[in-house]
């Protein structure tokens, strides 16, 4: 059963490649508990089938970068891009897309959190294994308040423009 609007987000672990070492975060991949990250925050999440894929690189990430200031003004504390890739790939993709800390590039390396959400996508036949469906959601203090799930590989409702209209 896939997660629904109004549901509590499941806890899990996401990994982020940290570019600059700080107190509490070492350089390289750092694991974070989702429950800790969402506590008291409003998070815009968008998930993609894979880093460096055409639609994700040409449209999805750029849409959230373009509307970063407007999303922040609408009350979003953080923006996450989630993909079933490892933290090294997500870090490299973030550098390639010049996210510069505006979007947290969160790796769900084995797809465990994505499976807990019920939003996995089996692309084994295409040589990609099990990935994430393309979607966006707003998590407000651990509760899903918006969920925009794409149908059939489309890119119509998970963009930043749609999310802004909902906020």
UniProtKB/TrEMBL annotation:
One of its GO terms (biological process) is hydrogen peroxide catabolic process. Coiled coil: none annotated. The active site is at residue 56. Residues 3-167 form the Thioredoxin domain. GO terms for molecular function: thioredoxin peroxidase activity. SUPFAM superfamilies: Thioredoxin-like. One of its GO terms (cellular component) is cytoplasm. Gene3D superfamilies: Glutaredoxin. It is an enzyme of class 1 (oxidoreductase). Its EC number is 1.11.1.27. Keywords: Antioxidant, Oxidoreductase, Peroxidase, Redox-active center. It catalyses: a hydroperoxide + 2 glutathione = an alcohol + glutathione disulfide + H2O. Thiol-specific peroxidase that catalyzes the reduction of hydrogen peroxide and organic hydroperoxides to water and alcohols, respectively. Plays a role in cell protection against oxidative stress by detoxifying peroxides. Belongs to the peroxiredoxin family. Prx5 subfamily. This is Glutathione-dependent peroxiredoxin. It comes from Neopusillimonas maritima.
